[in-house]
Design goal:
Strand content: 5-15%
Number of strands: 4
Helix content: over 70%
Strand order of the largest sheet: 2-3-1-4
Shape: elongated
Order of helices and strands: HHEHEHEHEHHHH
Number of helices: 9
Distance between the termini: 59 Å
Radius of gyration: 34 Å
């Protein structure tokens, strides 16, 4: 009985070792084929470089446009302060009435903050900004009103406008002002750019599929005799297709890296022009480069395009190749 159980245990152990060995050999075999495919690119440098450049540059345009849209969204988000509502107070309002309104506004859950700019403060700021300086001291009366600067909690244009309409009905408010038209236009431009990125990206990625597929097709045609011999000795279609799929994989990896480098180079080139504009507006805005998730997304997309383009080609053309009869 012990001999029987010992034999079963030994057989189970041998089976597990054999399964592990087959598992390891599977990955070793794929690794060898991947390296062989990379060497095949080196042996045909002209066709390989042209395909990689086309794939990389095709991905560069949507990637760069995406980065520009992301930075435009950052600009529109950083100008949330533009949703400030200026309440111009009537000249007949007393200091007590103004303070009472400030207290009411501070208790309002729709409002993040309230700042009171008195007539004297407004005149001092105007003297500094206008350049008239001491000439304004000859005025017998201060014509500027008291102003309450209200920062809404919700800075969306529609919500800010609704709050402005509500606050303009206050008894001591002469009128309210909210300058959001330019911000609304900026958001519309950003939405248009997003749609343009999607449309242009779809067209270019479709072109990449056809280019990779055609390159692999030419490679299959050049190796037709080799494929016929492999089929004669019993190689399956899956075995024959695998090196071509790895070729598409390498096209994707190298094309994605090229797209990343070119996109970063374009952003670096644009950074000088953007810094000149930000200096004019006294802004500390810095253009944001591609982050790690975006970089990985570009590489993954390029690899997917390379593999799918290869698969579309090999599935059709390798099945059509059959060894000639005797």
């Amino acid at each position: 009985m012990s001999i029987l159980f010992g034999g079963r245990a030994s057989g189970a152990r041998t089976s597990r070792i054999s399964a592990v060995r087959r598992f390891l050999m599977f990955f070793v075999h794929h690794f060898r084929q991947a390296l062989a495919s990379l060497g095949e690119l080196w042996r045909t440098p002209t066709a390989s470089v042209l395909t990689i450049v086309v794939l990389g540059l095709s991905l560069t345009l949507p990637a760069t446009l995406h980065l520009l849209v992301k930075n435009a969204q950052q600009i529109s988000g950083s100008f949330a302060k533009a949703a400030e509502i200026n309440l111009f107070i009537r000249d007949t309002a007393s200091a007590q009435q103004i303070q009472s309104l400030i207290t009411i506004l501070q208790a309002d859950k729709q409002i993040a903050s309230v700042q009171h700019i008195s007539k004297a403060q407004a005149m001092a700021e105007f003297q500094q900004a206008s350049g008239f300086g001491a000439a304004l001291n000859y005025l017998t009366d201060n014509p500027l009103p008291n102003v309450l600067v209200v920062q809404p909690l919700n800075t969306e244009p529609a919500a800010a406008r609704a709050l402005m309409q509500q606050l303009s009905n206050e008894r001591i408010v002469e009128f309210a002002k909210l300058d959001l038209e330019w911000l609304t236009r900026l958001e519309a431009i950003v939405r248009l750019l997003q749609q343009a990125v999607f449309a242009i990206g779809l067209l270019l990625l479709s072109a990449v599929l056809f280019i990779v597929s055609n390159t692999i097709r030419l490679s299959i045609i050049s190796k037709r005799e080799e494929i016929e011999v492999m089929k004669l000795v019993g190689a399956t279609d899956a075995f024959i297709q695998r090196p071509f799929l790895y070729t598409g994989f390498w096209y994707g990896v190298l094309g994605g890296l090229l797209a990343f480098l070119v996109s970063e180079a374009l952003l670096w080139w644009l950074r000088g022009a953007i810094s000149e504009i930000t200096q004019l507006y006294q802004s500390d805005f810095q253009i944001q480069p591609m982050n790690l998730p975006e970089f990985l997304s570009v590489i993954l997309l390029a690899v997917l395009l390379g593999v799918v383009g290869s698969y579309l080609s090999v599935r059709r053309h390798i099945r059509a190749i059959e060894p000639a009869g005797p």
